[in-house]
Amino acid sequence: MESLEARVVELEVKAAFQEDLLETLNDIVTRQEQQLDLLQKQIKALYQQMQSHGQGGNDGNPRHEIPPHY
């Protein structure tokens, strides 16, 4: 049988690894939340840009017109 001290040490080691894992996962979630916020802002800006150019996306600029052979 394992001694009580060995079991306590094993539990302390496991707890330390779990704390480290939780900190790492928290950092990852925080970074992903920041990335999502940025992506949402970019999507909103693109949506507003599309809305300002009208439904067809044609702003009167000949570069954005569909060629006649389409």
TrEMBL record:
Entry similarity comment: Belongs to the SlyX family.
Signal sequence, renumbered to the chain: none
Region (Disordered) residue spans: 49-70
Keyword match Glycoprotein: no
Protein origin, superkingdom: Bacteria
Keywords on record: Coiled coil
Gene that specifies this protein: slyX
Chain segments annotated as coiled-coil in the UniProt record: 1-49
Biased composition (Basic and acidic residues): 61-70
Protein name: Protein SlyX homolog
InterPro entries the UniProt entry points to: SlyX (IPR007236)
Keyword Transcription regulation attached: no
